[in-house]
Amino acid sequence: MKVAIVGCGNISHRHAEAYAKTGRADLVGVADVVEAKAQAAAEKYGATPYASVTELLAAEDPDLVSVTTPPGSHAEIAIEVLAAGSSVLLEKPPVLSLAELDEVARAEEASEGSVWVVFQHRHGSGAVRAADLLGRGALGRPLVAVCETLWFRPRSYFDPEWRGTWVGEGGGPTLGHGIHQIDLLLHLLGPWRTITASAVRLERPVEFEDVSTASVTFESGAVATVVNSLLSPRELSRIRIDTSGGTLEVNHVYGYSDRDWTFHPAPDAAKAATLGLDPGVRQADGLLVGTAESGAAADPWAASAGEDVPSNHDAQITRLVDDLLSGRTHETTLASTRPTMEFVTALYASSITGGPIHRTDLTPAHPFYRALHGNLPKPQVTESFLPRSGK
Ligand SMILES: NC(=O)c1ccc[n+]([C@@H]2O[C@H](COP(=O)([O-])OP(=O)(O)OC[C@H]3O[C@@H](n4cnc5c(N)ncnc54)[C@H](O)[C@@H]3O)[C@@H](O)[C@H]2O)c1
Fold first, then answer.
1. Are strands 231-243 and 142-152 parallel, antiparallel or unpaired?
2. Is the CB of 169 under 6 A from ligand 1?
3. CATH 3.40.50.720 occupies which residues in the chain?
4. Which of 20, 95, 215, 262 has the most other CB atoms within 10 Å of its CB?
């Protein structure tokens, strides 16, 4: 398989290394608007350097192009790659608005190529097991979830001129950081229905939020809270899902392995009753009464354990190359990431306008369809992120 990379910055190395590890993908070309960066990457990985995606496509005719440029350029580059008939692996966030996402989707429809999106946390073995077991109902019915991206970025992180601005970053931690956990939550829980959110700027020199919180309902009836922060010194990424059968939880920061996942089956009330105990009460040895922890019931989570695949670019790119070479559809399609972009859009829309947003509201006529700030007057948008804006 002939692959190429456009944008030779930080994350491009994870792509180049992951392709090399597959042993079945040949990195033929790399492009960057900064010539020295393309040159350095080309030397490091044995590829040919190009000054633009246009030159790269014309010379190499790659099967797949990783787009690892800043988010504001993703849609335009993806459309150009598709027009040349190649497929695209698009870094997160795939685009900056639903309008851009639909433009890329139209280009995909008209192309022989396809678009896949990097959401590596769907592809570690923990998430693969969780999606399979939840999808089959083997862990019970999801009821309540917590999804937290509690990260820390000091003021100096925002020193580069483009950071902290709508034009440069497209949005705050909801779009740029929390989107990983949000995507995984939606992947595990299915379609969301309504969001009520608050995004505020408490500490950092940014045009948007440095913290956001959301209350979410799902079509299944489940409910969740979501927090995205760049102000949290002890960093944590967490998803916790309480089902009718137990508590499934992953705690990590930038990537998990199997040991970061736990499942605590719900106490077996009948078993506890025969022991004359309250279910859910911890005994002196710390085990819950009447659960698989205490040997009382089979644990479907433990039974699903297999090879431990950590959630990183290697995990997704290995699966992608396997899928493409064997003619399967890779799971993280552009269409499958639309609910994630809808969620992010609704979170901003709810916070800025001050009311709930239903997923069905987000038609092309909705003001936030074209931009995460709704193209509302700048003072109104800026004011909405002040903590005392009356939300
Ligand atoms: N999946 C993850 O965990 C993860 C982690 C970090 C970054 N990312 C994403 O990867 C993307 C890139 O982030 P980064 O940290 O590597 O950024 P970066 O600034 O380090 O690198 C971007 C590179 O793209 C080049 N570039 C800009 N416009 C270009 C164009 N039109 N054509 C060719 N090259 C162009 C720049 O010169 C730069 O070398 C972003 O979308 C970011 O959100 C994903």
1. antiparallel
2. no
3. 2-117
4. 95
